[in-house]
Amino acid sequence: MTNEISEGQNRPLDTGVSGMKKWLMPALIAVIVIQLFTPIYMIANKYHVLRSGEEFIFRVNHVDPYDAFRIGYVSLSTYQADMVSGSGRYGIISIDADGFAYISSITDNRPVSGAYVRSNNRSWFVLPIERYYMKEKLAPGAETLIWERTPDEEAYVTVRIKNGKLIISGLFVDGVAIEDILRNN
Fold this sequence. Notes:
- It is a single chain.
- By secondary structure, the chain is an alpha+beta fold.
- It folds into two domains: 36 residues; 131 residues, no CATH class.
- It has four helices and nine strands; from the N terminus they run αββαββββαβββα.
- The strands form two sheets. A six-stranded antiparallel beta sheet has the order 6-2-1-7-8-9. Strands 4-3-5 form a three-stranded antiparallel beta sheet, with no helix packed on it.
- The longest helix has 36 residues.
- The relative contact order is 0.17.
């Protein structure tokens, strides 16, 4: 009995294992490179906005800095957040007489000039100033400081904006960084 297959007989199916081995390693390397590149790109993009973006100051309406489940950041709300209405993806930034930024109008079309902020919400405009991250130990003290400040003490955030991307760079009370106030108390 021979193992030769004659013309009329069926041949065993080729499983393609050798073909799969050829592309498996390059595919694995591609996935690893993408996984490494993605966070590096995100960090570099935020760093670029912080380094070269235009600085603006937004007043802080109220702050709720402590949450038992999400410690380490301060929840922010600006005066402007409650006044802006309408749908659109882009908010046009203007400066008031006191030097504070506000959203003067909302549009669906990306502005070709001037400062603007892109909302992360596709249905309606939401100013992307929601969280200021800080050390977990300092967040509870920030709550007391913000809520117990006197009416003449002003709280605000500084942000950097470039090409519609907004990064919060600081939270201040009367011109002093909140972290410095908490460390000195």
